């Protein structure tokens, strides 16, 4: 077992999960604030140089998990580890946000998909080294292709 303590909390415009965009083509443009606790503020030194951050957080308002998930972006179910489902054995969320500015212990960001008050476990600079042409999008690409056929 591992014991972890939050380094801060997400301030988000979302109070209810129904307010958060979901499904194919959903865009996360909402602004929020990552409020870092005073005892961890020194760990933000030099973070301003990064345009995007990974935020690792806890799905604190979910209990239990399913090994098969039915994402809103598809009519078929998939293994939980092939999805971003919130109902997972270890309820960890991972979100890439754009860093707009820092004010002391507060990071103003765009792209939150967390509920207000969500505990933050860690923040890391986003550095993608995978060339776009080497990325495969699995079942999501198939779901997108099916959807665009239906839209035509
Ligand atoms: C599909 S998950 C994806 C989250 C993250 N981008 C990821 O990939 O791990 C996003 C959903 O989690 C739910 N959610 C957000 N914050 C939550 C929280 N603190 N506890 C439980 N569910 C939450 C909302 O329903 C939101 O639409």
Structure description:
The protein has 152 residues and is mainly beta. The strands form two sheets. Strands 1-2-7-6-3-8 form a six-stranded antiparallel barrel. Strands 4-5 form a two-stranded antiparallel ribbon. β6 and β7 form a beta hairpin. The protein contains one helix and eight strands. Bound molecules: S-adenosylmethionine. S-adenosylmethionine binds next to β6.
The share of residues in extended strands comes to 25-35%
Strand order of the largest sheet: 1-2-7-6-3-8
Mean pLDDT value: 96
Helix content: under 10%
Ligand kinds: S-adenosylmethionine
Distance between the termini: 51 Å
Shape: globular
| Rg from Cα | 17 Å
Number of helices: 1
Largest sheet: 6 strands, antiparallel, barrel
Order of helices and strands: EEEEEEEEH
State the low-pLDDT regions, or none: none
Based on secondary structure, the structural category is mainly beta
Secondary-structure blueprint of this entry?
Layout: E1 8-11, E2 31-36, E3 52-58, E4 68-69, E5 78-79, E6 92-103, E7 106-110, E8 119-125, H1 138-151
Antiparallel strand pairs: 1-2, 1-8, 2-7, 3-6, 3-8, 4-5, 6-7
Bound molecules: S-adenosylmethionine.
Summarize this, please?
This protein is mostly beta strands and 152 residues long.
What are the defining features of this structure?
single chain; 152 residues; mainly beta; 6-stranded antiparallel barrel; two-stranded antiparallel ribbon; binds S-adenosylmethionine
